[in-house]
Specification:
It is built from 22 helices and no strands. The chain is mostly helical. It is globular, with a radius of gyration of 23 Å.
Amino acid sequence: MSGNLFKSLATVSGMTMLSRVMGFARQVLIAGVIGAGGNPVADAFWAAFRLPNMFRRLFAEGAFQAAFVPLFQGKLLNDEQGAAKKFAEEVLAFLLCVLIGLTAIVEIAAPLFVHMIASGFADDPEKFDLTALYLRIMFPYLACMSLVGLLSGILNSLDRFMAYAGAPLLLNVCQIAAIVLYATDEIHVTGEALAWATAISGFLQLALLVWGANRQGYLLKLRAPRMTPGVKRLLVLGAPGFLSAGATQINIIIGTNIASQQPGAVSWLLNADQLYQLPLAVVGTALGVVLLPMLSRRVKEGDEKGAMHAINRSLELSAVLTLPAAAAFIIMSAPICEALFVGFATDALALFGGRSSAFTAEDVKWTGWALAIYGWGLPAFVWQRIFAPAFFAREDTKAPMNYAIVAIVVNTVLALVLFPIFGFLAVAFATVFAAWLQVFQLSFNLWRRGQFRPDTRLLSRGPRIVAATAFMSACVWVSLNQSDRLAAALFDRYWAAVIVIAIGGVIAYGATLFALGGVRLSDYKAYSRNRNSF
């Protein structure tokens, strides 16, 4: 199995980038058709989508993998392929038992779960009933994503990332198809079509992962569910891991519930969330997925120096990619929202009937504010996914769990206290503050244990990356003042002007970064030649 983090990251990030670009198109089309703040269908759909989407991130990207991968990896390192496969089948049996029961409960008691995720909708019967309907339709997606998480853990442990990285494409394809086929004036029909498309995409993603696992000789057989020693160990690790790896997602669910007290807030937060998820997924999630099995393997081999080196290079690479994205979201938040959800959406929808975007100036304003706040938290969201695997690789989920509990409590208290003053923006601020708090706790614990020290290269290049980001930010700030003139030169397409400004910022950042020595091509050429250099 390859030890090349850079090569594996390129595979996952490349597919994730393709998925997120399609996700942008999906988000623009959905926002253009069902709008945001002034439409009950928008709030209802996004609130209902929160719960299954949270479980996708927890199982396919977070908590489940944090518990499952080190255990599965340990059996593989001992050349126990038969034992590893048996362990996976035992976990599959247990998961199926839990998922069938949970799905039945949600289908019967959907209104109760709506109260859990969006209690503020209770004052609007139409919005509440729509949310319950969409939740019932979409909830099987949760079960599929949980099984996708199991199969992804197997393939990731084998350094086979393509199927896992490509699976989210199917969600985007299905939802875009629903918008194209059902973008009618009766938006209730569009909302229901989106819900069904989500459910269908879950089964398609599961089929893809089953195919991928079968190619590696891991077509799992169904067993009778039993509480075997392996399953017990998974639960011991998984229960705290659910909190530790999923703190951000849990905070988002709590925030959604609080924000539901304000009309339109759920949609504004969700649209901002979807925008910052692009760099988060391409960098943070991809790094976390690739880093966990690598760290687990090196720790079990006793290579602590190699594990620390991988963390340092992950922090360096993530800073190169994340800091400029965070700066762009802070500086260009409203222009990005106007360009995508209004200008580009209107031009895109013109291809399917000539309708204008339903996204209003009010939606642009508040989604932009939320995006700017999330921009300050983007590095923390990414670095959580780098520091947490250092604990999970050592089968330590209790310490991250304790930090996650602190972060969840702080997030909830801050959001509740500040909501009467700042409205739904308090939710975004609380989520960001809690993320930074969790990063501090994780990194400080690793420092105290002697399992993490910033190396000379990271300390040298970090300030250079910050300097290049600052220069890029200044260039973008000046360019935005000329955006109207630039748009006029581009056939009155404001969205095209914003894209040109963003491209110019990327060029300015890249040139400055290389000039300052923040990155060197020789490093990445070495990674491509040496499988174990990263």
